[in-house]
Amino acid sequence: QVLLVESGGGLVQPGGSLRLSCTASGSFINISGVGWYRQVPGQQRVWVAGISSGGVTSYLDSVKGRFTVSRDSAENTVHLRMNNLKPEDTAVYYCGMGSSWGQGTQVTVSS
């Protein structure tokens, strides 16, 4: 089982930016598909963005043009850059790879 650790969440004003990181315990993350998900209390976890094993990225329509997924192979890390954040982006964000999940990082967008 791969250990995934998310970081980078926090409180930001609307229009602000954050960069989330998902760091793996090994280098397998560099050749695997990785997804970013978010969950609001009382609701299901929702897929937000992902990067394939080949580096192809895909996004939920509501975050296209604002969120960017990238891979840093040297650091065994996948990033989620979030720009122009909106209050509706508030959630706990998780990264997932295969059957492995991180513990989540809270993102709160509020003035």
Keywords:
four-stranded antiparallel beta sheet; 11 strands; mainly beta; globular; 111 residues
Mean pLDDT: 95
Major beta-sheet overview: 7 strands, mixed
Oligomer: single chain
Total beta strands: 11
Cα shape: globular
Rg computed from alpha carbons, rounded to a whole number of angstroms? 13 Å
The secondary structure category is mainly beta
Helical content stands at under 10%
User: How far is it from the N-terminal to the C-terminal residue, by CA?
Assistant: 39 Å
Give the helices and strands as they follow along the chain. Answer: EEEEEEEEEEE
Q: How many alpha or pi helices? A: 0
Question: How large a portion of the residues is in β-strands, by DSSP E?
Answer: over 45%
Low-confidence stretches: none
Protein architecture, described:
This protein is an all-beta fold and 111 residues long. The protein has no helices and 11 strands. Strands 2, 4, 5, 6, 9, 10 and 11 form a 7-stranded mixed β-sheet that branches. Strand 7 and strand 8 form a beta hairpin.
Present the secondary structure layout:
Blueprint: E1 4-7, E2 10-12, E3 18-24, E4 34-39, E5 46-51, E6 57-59, E7 67-72, E8 77-82, E9 91-97, E10 100-101, E11 105-109
Parallel strand pairs: 2-11
Antiparallel strand pairs: 1-3, 3-8, 4-5, 4-9, 5-6, 7-8, 9-10, 9-11
